[in-house]
Amino acid sequence: MHQGSCLCGAVSFSVRGALSPPTACHCSMCRKHHGHFEAGTDVPRDQVEIKGGETVRWYQSSERVRRGFCSVCGSSLFFDIEGVDRIGLSMGAFDTPTDSRLAMHIFVADKGDYYEIADGLPQHDGVPVAPAQES
């Protein structure tokens, strides 16, 4: 069980099961929403329980994506893609050890000019597409 919360504690969440390896997103929207690049993990919706959901506010940042944050303290918590049975959780919101390691960086062409990515992990200009499965 993994647990997390916003800065003020008005919103908390728990996740049953393992977390997928987190991804660091350097796109301009994530940077503006988080104040720096965003690191997040995607988990099946049915494995997440959110308490204080009435305090969560959603910002529709694009046609298919909305971002959830605490309306009291402003903590960035969720990344929700319409029609996908997974929800993104901000790694910085976890209260407990996650036993995970960053897997890759995406949208690196949009990264801020004030930092370098030097951890040796894969870097992509967008979201990598999984190769087609052979029949």
TrEMBL record:
Keyword line: Lyase, Metal-binding, Zinc
Gene3D superfamilies given in the database record: glutathione-dependent formaldehyde- activating enzyme (gfa)
Pfam family for this entry, one: GFA
Entry superkingdom: Bacteria
One MF term in the entry's GO annotations: carbon-sulfur lyase activity
CENP-V/GFA domain residues: 2-116
Family label: Belongs to the Gfa family.
Protein's UniProt name: Aldehyde-activating protein
Organism: Devosia pacifica
